[in-house]
TrEMBL record:
Residue span, Aldehyde dehydrogenase domain: 67-143
Organism name: Octactis speculum
The name this protein goes by in its record: Aldehyde dehydrogenase domain-containing protein
Keyword Aminoacyl-tRNA synthetase: no
A Pfam family per the record: Aldedh
InterPro entries recorded: Ald_DH/histidinol_DH, Ald_DH_N, Aldehyde_DH_dom
TM regions (residue ranges): 7-27
UniProt key word Transcription: no
Length: 144
């Protein structure tokens, strides 16, 4: 026996498949969780493109104060601040928290990871100027 196929059915079948795919994608979009908007307040210095008239960092402090972490812009030597150095116990506690977070990430679903990454993406795209400014200042690079 010979099986015949009516060529007049190709277009309606194709249109039906495309329509079903379109409705499926629309449903996915509508039912997807809303990506939250993350807000992080910038400090006054982080809002500025240039830090004029700042105290310059004294490199000799690095040898004299092992209990402090100094922050400065390597390209201008502007002092950005200082923080107490973490103790060994604080470092161990931080590493333990990171291990818990890594295990949670490892065991999370694809949808949960995608949601987290899209949240980060939304924040980075909305704040790329300030992120670049602060990153460049901390690394001694310039923004052009």
């Amino acid at each position: 026996t010979v099986v015949t196929f009516d060529l007049n059915l190709i277009f309606p079948i194709g249109l039906g498949i495309v329509t079903l795919f379109g409705f499926w994608k629309l449903f996915q979009h509508v039912s997807a969780p809303t990506i939250p908007c993350v807000k992080v307040e910038l400090t006054d210095d982080e809002k500025l493109d240039r830090l004029d008239g700042r105290e310059k960092f004294d490199l000799s402090k690095l040898d004299n104060s092992p209990d402090r972490v100094y922050l400065w812009d390597p390209s201008t030597m502007d002092k950005l601040g200082e923080k107490p150095a973490m103790s060994a116990a604080q470092v161990e506690e931080t590493v333990a928290k990171a291990r818990v977070a890594a295990a949670a990430w490892k065991n999370s679903s694809f949808d949960a990871r995608r949601h987290a990454l899209r949240t980060i993406l939304k924040y980075v795209l909305a704040n790329q100027i300030s992120l670049a400014r602060v990153s460049c200042r901390e690394s001694g690079k310039t923004v052009t």
